[in-house]
Amino acid sequence: MQTQKNMGKIWKNPTKKEDKHPDLKGYIWIDGIKYDLGGWQRDEDGRVFYSLSARQYENPDNQGIAKTVARGNATRVPADGFQSAHDLNDAIPF
Question: Which residue among 5, 9, 54, 93 is least crowded, i.e. fewest CB within 10 A of its CB?
Fold first, then answer.
C-alpha cells in the first residue's frame, strides 16, 4: 500500500520491552523526507491522549544520508519515488 504525500502510518509497537519505549511506532513522509514516529499513551485528568516524537529516518544501509539532509544538501524525492512530470526532460518534440 502506497503512502500518500505528507501522510504516514502508526501501529502498536511489537517490540516494546520497557515503559520508556513507545507504545506506538510508525513513520510519516513530509516534503519528500521520511520521519520515524513514536507515541506514548498518557493519562491527564482522566483523559487519555498520545504524546508523539518524530525523528528523521536514518537508513542503516546508507550511513551519512541524515547528516547530508540536515545540512540542507539532499535532494527531496516524493514518497512514491517518482519524479513529477515537471522534472522530466521535455526536449522530445511530441
Answer: 93
Domain ranges of the chain: 8-75
pLDDT, block means (10 residues), the chain with 94 residues: 79 95 95 93 94 89 53 51 51 58
Q: Locate cell 502498536: which residue?
A: 12
Cα end-to-end distance, the chain, whole Å: 33
d(CA 72, CA 94): 36
CB 49 within 8 A of CB 26: no
pTM exceeds 0.85, yes or no: no
Report residue 64: phi and psi, to 5°: 95, -15
CA distance 35 to 14: 19
